Amino acid sequence: MANGVINVAVLGSTGSIGRSTLDVIAASRGRLRPFGLTANSRLEEALRQAWHVRPRWLVATDPHLARQFAWGDLPPETELLVGDEGVERLVADPEVDIVVAAMVGMAGLRGTWAAVRASKRVALANKEALVAAGPLMMDLARQNGATILPVDSEHSAIFQALQAGNRQQVRRLVLTASGGPFRRHSAEQMAAVTVEQALAHPTWAMGKKITIDSATMMNKALEIIEARWLFDVPADQIAVVVHPQSIVHSMVEFCDGCVMAQLSPPDMKLPIQYALSFPERWTGPALQFDWSHMMELDFYPPDPQRFPALSLGHEAARLGGTAGAVLSAANEAAVALFLEGDLRFTEIVPACRSVLQQHTFEVHPSLEQLLRLDAWARQEVSKWICA
Ligand code: NDP
Ligand code: MG
């Protein structure tokens, strides 16, 4: 850290979390500096961002798209890098203090992995990387003295609530879920859901993949697995409760019955900023409560029949090994098919279950094995394409 300024690399700066991260950096009054950005397909937006924040590095992750794009002028202080090698070079730059891992899906694994290996503080939004390779990633962090701090709002809430006691005193973690747009839908209504309906989330504005994951509640399944590795808590000590207002972001229940919750309006800028400012708290751009208005907080148990993804999440968290990688890859492929109109909404979870059950389970896989299974799971899901 030079002159007290924290250099931040934002992997996935053109996405929903990436853009919010740039807002947090802009509001930090010079404490944070946008040192590197990465973009995949939205290169025009990336170029605009580069002129706006003038980073040291700009990485275009897709070499083919990067070659086709008419770059014109870059800001004089910015150098262009391309592909996975570019991402690895950015995160390993000794001048980078914090890497915000905000690419979506398994594509984010390589950059997150390289950042952990380079002993950086990683502000982790890219939950799929941890779901797929949790034990390996946490081991790598221990070996290299890297810190992984959660950006996911539920895990940020738990991280904050855990500070009220010690790990031996934790009875369970309670993840809250908004329930998504279909929390009141019957099974019949769910069968007829369109892409447009599934993309209309009631409380959060996010990228497409996580929005569909919220509608199936696969997002919560992935978050169970994420919590299992991030906090080293067994799967049966991780509960889920539906809380439609998205005000309580999650809770920790201690052995004496005390429950610590973290509350704030639904705005990702708060957990992003906390992962960057920790252990300090800063005034920032996140929304604040207006206490002059009435506020209701509802909690109820999820319905495992209508949201079968949840039991898959618990199962994969219990199994560990290759289960997270297969579930996450199958889901990513199934969501892509649904968005293209090639798979029904209610087939997403059955496709994932089928692929999870078929795979050859391995308790202590290598990274290479996980990558092979990732490709295999996607292939298997493609067999579900609607006739
Ligand atoms: P978006 O779809 O909005 O953004 C994804 C980012 O990843 C974009 O910058 C995109 O680049 C980049 N990207 C996409 N594909 C690739 C690829 N193949 N290689 C490299 N980069 C790629 O997603 P979100 O911001 O919503 O989500 C990002 C991550 O954060 C996900 O893992 C999600 O689960 C997690 N998260 C998101 C939350 C939210 O509120 N949005 C909340 C909690 C977690 P480009 O746009 O240029 O193509
Ligand atoms: Mg979340």
Structural overview:
This protein is of the alpha/beta class and 387 residues long. The chain folds into two domains: 2-150, 3-Layer(aba) Sandwich (Rossmann fold), CATH 3.40.50.720; 155-268 and 292-320, no CATH class. Helices cover 44% and strands 15% of the residues. It contains 16 helices and eleven strands. A seven-stranded parallel beta sheet has the order 4-3-2-1-5-6-7, sandwiched between helices. It has a four-stranded mixed beta sheet with strand order 9-8-10-11, with helices on one face. The N and C termini lie far apart (56 Å). 46% of the residues are buried. The mean pLDDT is 96.
Stretches where pLDDT is under 50 for at least 5 consecutive residues are: none
Instruction: Write the CATH architecture name of the largest domain.
Output: 3-Layer(aba) Sandwich
Bound molecules: NADPH dihydro-nicotinamide-adenine-dinucleotide phosphate, magnesium ion
CATH topology of the largest domain: Rossmann fold
Largest sheet: 7 strands, parallel
- Going by CATH, the homologous superfamily of the largest domain would be NAD(P)-binding Rossmann-like Domain
Tally of domains: 2
Helix and strand arrangement:
Blueprint: E1 6-11, H1 16-26, E2 32-39, H2 43-53, E3 57-60, H3 63-68, E4 79-82, H4 83-92, E5 98-101, H5 109-117, E6 121-124, H6 127-144, E7 147-150, H7 153-161, E8 170-177, H8 187-191, H9 195-198, H10 208-216, H11 218-230, E9 238-242, E10 248-254, E11 259-263, H12 269-277, H13 309-319, H14 323-339, H15 348-358, H16 367-382
Parallel strand pairs: 1-2, 1-5, 2-3, 3-4, 5-6, 6-7, 8-9
Antiparallel strand pairs: 8-10, 10-11
Helix pairs in contact: 4-5, 5-6, 6-11, 6-14, 11-13, 14-15, 14-16
Bound molecules: NADPH dihydro-nicotinamide-adenine-dinucleotide phosphate and magnesium ion (MG).
